[in-house]
Write a structure and sequence with these properties.
The chain has about 325 residues and is an all-alpha fold. It is about 60% helix and about 0% strand.
Length: about 325
């Protein structure tokens, strides 16, 4: 007599795995990395390589010596993604020792202290970035001008588009909206800023790839971008001499990077589509509020981390439909 063994549902495997999706995200990040190499050269290579190597080392070391794990998790791609995204949130002239500290905080505090992949409530790369921003504000806000391919720590610096916008809003002398790069420059990446945020076009190519491969859904990135466009558009109509057009807001700073690659993190974002939309709208609102009325020129990192904290609450009230569940008739 043969026994029929029935495991927990669902019984059909979709072909996805953590490793497959992680490396799919890395493929989507390639265009932005190539653009950063084109505009920042040696600095982009050093910062990215250091960040990835440090993240891999700390995940291996913490897992082996502190958590006493029998198997390593460095091959699943998550530590590499954390390293790349952390690097993409840094200036291309940041000293190596500061990058290593950021990687230690991202992996050690932001990820492994909660139990590793799948348990962390906050995006590890953003946690590392905010830690460095609060600890080393001067180094983290000194931006090299584009085109210095062989320069690293001695690169000539320049103001970023968001710094110019904040200077105009605050009434600081020497700032004018006429100094902003054109929309085309912001689209292709011919402007100062973090490594991975300068080219909106490269990030949109990554978004298209992940949507095509069904690594992510449209709900979070689209809700963020639409919210920012509407809110910043209202402010622009109220006072166009003080606030920039919504198109410039969308193309500037880390908005595209955050909306496409950071806010869509599986672990720290809501599970249901309705929850994703609420999550994205709130991130968009917080980003514009911080940009226009806060102390920092950029608000994307803070907005995502704040909403990461609300993800469990959103999941409580907006639960995805259970597999095989039949809706009850009212």
């Amino acid at each position: 007599m043969n026994r029929l063994i029935v495991s927990l549902s669902p019984h059909v495997h979709g072909g996805d795995s953590v490793k497959k999706n992680m490396y799919g995200v890395l493929v989507a990040l390639i265009p932005a990395f190539l653009v950063s190499l084109y505009f920042f050269g040696l600095g982009a290579l050093i910062v990215t390589a250091t960040s990835v190597a440090a993240c891999l080392f700390f995940e291996w070391a913490i897992g082996k010596f502190l958590m006493k794990k029998q198997t390593t998790t460095i091959c699943d791609g998550s530590a590499i993604i954390t390293g790349v995204l952390l690097a993409f949130n840094l200036p291309s002239n940041l000293p190596i020792w500061i990058i290593i500290l950021g990687a230690l905080f991202a992996i050690g505090v932001g990820k492994m202290s909660f139990g590793g992949l799948g348990c962390n409530p906050f995006n590890p790369a953003l946690a590392g970035r905010v830690f460095l921003l609060l600890s080393f504000p001067v180094q983290m806000t000194t931006w090299p001008a584009v085109g210095q391919l062989t320069a690293y720590t001695d690169a000539t610096t320049a103001a970023t588009p968001l710094a110019i916008m904040k200077g105009v809003i605050s009434g600081a002398p020497g700032y004018s909206l006429s100094d902003l790069p054109t929309s085309l420059d912001l689209l292709i990446g011919n402007n100062g800023g973090c490594l991975g945020e300068v080219s909106a076009l490269a990030l949109l190519l990554g978004l298209a790839y992940m949507l095509w491969k069904k690594i992510i859904t449209w709900h979070i990135p689209v809700s963020i971008l639409v919210t920012v466009f509407i809110f910043s558009g209202i402010m622009y109509l109220v006072n166009p001499e003080l606030y920039v057009s919504p198109v410039l807001q969308l193309l500037s700073g880390g908005l595209m990077l955050g909306a496409v690659f950071m806010a869509t993190d599986y672990v720290t974002s809501p599970m249901s589509h309705k929850g994703m939309l609420i999550y994205g709208v709130c991130i968009g609102l917080l980003t514009v509020i911080i940009r226009l009325f806060g102390a920092y020129p950029e608000g994307m990192s803070f907005a995502i981390l704040i909403m990461n904290a609300f993800t469990p609450l959103i999941n409580t009230y907006f639960k995805p439909k259970r597999f095989g569940e039949v809706a009850k008739k009212k």
